Amino acid sequence: MRTKKSQVNKEEYMFSLIAEQAASGQSIKSFCARHGIPSGNWFYWQKRYQQRNVESHNDNGSFTLLQVTPDVVTPVESGIFAEYKGLKIYRPVPASFLKELIG
């Protein structure tokens, strides 16, 4: 019967190999062959490793900072944004407004 301690040691060992392979830049196939790991086992442990990382990031109770910047409209140097049939528009307007004006 497998003990919980041996399972934890195996998990730590496999997770260290996954990190080593990612850092090495070596293909999974050649890395597994070099370490004698069946590719099916590799992908099983890789999935568990990814799930563990997602859980650890989600369980810390923190928020991710999201910075929203407003759209910046650069002023037109001449002062006139648009002119159509004698109508002068001095500020930027949405394209939909200009389409309605022309249509």
From TrEMBL:
Name of protein: Transposase
Query: What species does this protein belong to?
Result: Chitinophaga silvisoli
